[in-house]
Design a protein that fits this description.
Blueprint lengths: L5 E6 L9 H9 L2 E8 L11 H20 L5 E4 L2 H11 L2 E7 L4 H16 L3 E5 L7 H7 L8 H8 L51 H13 L1 H6 L18 H5 L5 H14 L10 H17 L21 H9 L5 H13 L4 H14 L5 H11 L5 H11 L16 H4 L6 H6 L19 H7 L14 H26 L3 H6 L19
Parallel strand pairs: 1-2, 1-4, 2-3, 4-5
The structure holds a DNA duplex (14 and 14 nucleotides).
Length: about 525
DNA sequence: TTCCTGTTGTATAC
DNA sequence: GTATACAACAGGAA
């Protein structure tokens, strides 16, 4: 009699039991299921993954473990490189099937193809499923003749009529077999300290990781049918003291909540109300942006770089370590910018429009520093840092791709005022400005000295002077952007045979020594 | 080739 | 609150 068949379901993203086709396939085919997550210690470094996101991941794993134990199973957290760990586990547990969710990121694709051939050599069959996104990017590319749609609108017409699969139920039972004895706790979910991180100082991030938390948050929003039906992204506030958007992004990033579940729940609410908002501003519209950006990450070469990325405008960004550091640390002297960066670091989440504000400021708006630098910082601190989405949004805001109206520059003083005239958001995150009168809170350097004294905040001593003159640098930058776009245009025309034109308008490389003296191109 | 549209700008005028 | 200049982009449709 043949012994019971054993499978590993390998969790990576998709940290959930609901809508998990790969896990269900393992359960269908095998009696003994080993749910595994592999932690690669090499990634446990703060320069890549900030401690708050790592904490969120560990909480998600603990939640998964709890849910599995409720079903008389458990999560096995193994440490090491997947290509080392998995073969060991295959042998140890006599595995014949490996299942996982497809991942479209370049690193993951490389890793998974290596694992596939490894498994093949060890007589382990591999089954993988698309369940992180609404659509299968490979299928979308096939439908669009291998072209990634260049605009949101053309993406929407592409997916019109493509069915979004219904989400699957969580399995009631995982496995017949009793989990292996692990008295030493070899496979337990580690702590932040175990992974070499220092403990989080100050209040914990307000968002806890895991499928349970994610589903709770989803339900909470879905119960508010009016909010769901009327949701319009541009009308939500970047500086409200409580989030004005759903904060489902970290749960979608790790797959604690299935995007297909979210999508079908939205459709179900839409059916129950008289009218609802539409893409691009609606919540379904937000999911479509996610899909479009994932497709870009899948189909555009060198997507996370400027150089070698055919969709990205080539812009001669400035290198300026002091400015970059001031931006990251929240010491630019612009209270709205500094408050947003403080919220980013202390809570791991900031509103979408707040991201716009600081991203525009770092790149084309003020500092003219590469979006790649900004993307690195965001991916360190954001709980929801997602390779495709983060990259795409940085390209958008820096007017490198997707968005091209570079002359629309966010004002670090004006933008926040529109939705928070009193500056309460700034007061919350920058207590040093707590007593600054609202007239000056967005630009404290304009406050008379006696006002600064009365507020207990002297600019230049208690709070920094602004590192740039926004009016001057934003105008200068528009000129530089125009140069870069002209060069792009000339290159494009040059390809058609008129190469002389390409040389006519080369983009000027801005020099650090001439930051304020650049004269905008004359008419 | 021209025209239209593009989630989410700002300052100023009425 | 709404309109307009600012200096003017790209992609896609017609």
């Amino acid at each position: 009699m043949a012994s019971a068949k054993a499978a590993i379901h390998w969790f990576r993203k998709g940290l959930r039991l609901h809508d998990n086709p790969a896990l269900l396939e393992a359960i269908k085919q095998c009696e003994n299921i080993y749910p595994v997550f592999i932690i690669d210690p090499w990634f446990a470094r703060e320069e890549f993954v900030g401690k708050r996101r790592y904490q969120f991941l560990l909480e998600s794993l603990s939640d998964l473990d709890r849910s599995l134990r409720e079903r008389k199973s458990r999560l096995y957290v193994a440490k090491g490189k997947p290509e080392d760990v998995l073969p060991q586990l295959f042998r140890k547990w006599s595995i014949s099937l490996l299942t996982f969710e497809n991942d479209t990121e370049p690193y993951a694709r490389k890793r998974d193809s290596a694992i596939r051939s490894l498994a093949e050599g060890l007589n382990v069959s591999v089954k993988s499923f698309t369940s992180h996104t609404l659509f299968d990017p490979e299928h979308l590319l096939f439908l669009n003749k291998d072209q990634v749609p260049g605009t949101y609108k053309s993406f929407c017409s592409l997916v019109k009529g493509v069915k979004v699969e219904l989400p699957l139920e969580a399995p009631a039972q995982i496995s017949n077999h009793i989990p292996v004895k692990d008295e030493a706790g070899e496979y337990d979910v580690p702590t932040l300290l175990d992974m070499g991180y220092k403990e989080i100082v100050g209040p914990p991030t307000p968002f806890r990781g895991g499928e349970s938390e994610g589903l709770k948050r989803l339900r909470m929003h879905m119960n508010n049918k009016r909010y769901i039906a009327e949701f319009e992204k541009p009308k939500t506030k970047p500086n409200s003291l409580e989030p004005s958007t759903t904060v489902l992004s970290p749960y979608l990033k790790f797959g604690c909540v299935s995007s297909r579940l979210f999508y079908h729940e939205l459709l179900s609410v839409y059916k129950q109300v008289k009218s609802h908002s539409q893409p691009p501003v609606s919540l379904v519209g937000q999911l479509y942006f996610r899909e479009w950006f994932y497709l870009n990450g899948y189909g555009v070469p060198n997507f996370d770089k400027m150089i070698g990325n055919p969709r990205c405008v080539q812009i001669p960004w400035i290198e300026n370590a002091e400015h970059l550091e001031a931006w990251e640390k929240g010491t630019t002297g612009f209270p709205f910018i500094d408050a947003i960066m403080t919220q980013l670091k202390t809570e791991g989440w900031i509103h979408h429009l707040a991201r716009h504000m600081v991203a525009c400021f770092l790149t084309r708006g003020d500092l003219f520093i590469s979006w790649e630098e900004g993307a690195k910082v965001f991916s360190r601190y954001l709980l929801d840092a997602d390779w495709s989405l983060n990259t795409a949004n940085w390209q958008w805001l820096s007017a490198s791709a997707f968005f091209h109206q570079y002359f629309r520059v966010y004002g670090p003083v004006s933008f926040g005022k529109k939705t928070d005239k009193n500056g309460d958001y700034i007061r919350k995150y920058l207590p040093v400005l707590k007593k600054m009168p609202h007239k000056y809170i967005y630009e404290p350097w304009t406050a008379p000295l006696h006002v600064q004294k009365a507020a207990g905040c002297i600019v230049g001593k208690d709070y920094p002077e602004p590192i740039v003159d926004h009016k001057i640098v934003s105008k200068r930058n528009i000129g530089w952007m125009a140069e870069a776009y002209r060069k792009k245009k000339a290159m494009k025309q040059g390809k058609g045979g008129k190469s002389a034109k390409a040389k006519k308008n080369p983009a000027k490389r801005p020099s650090n020594s001439n930051l304020d003296g650049f004269v905008v191109r004359k008419k």
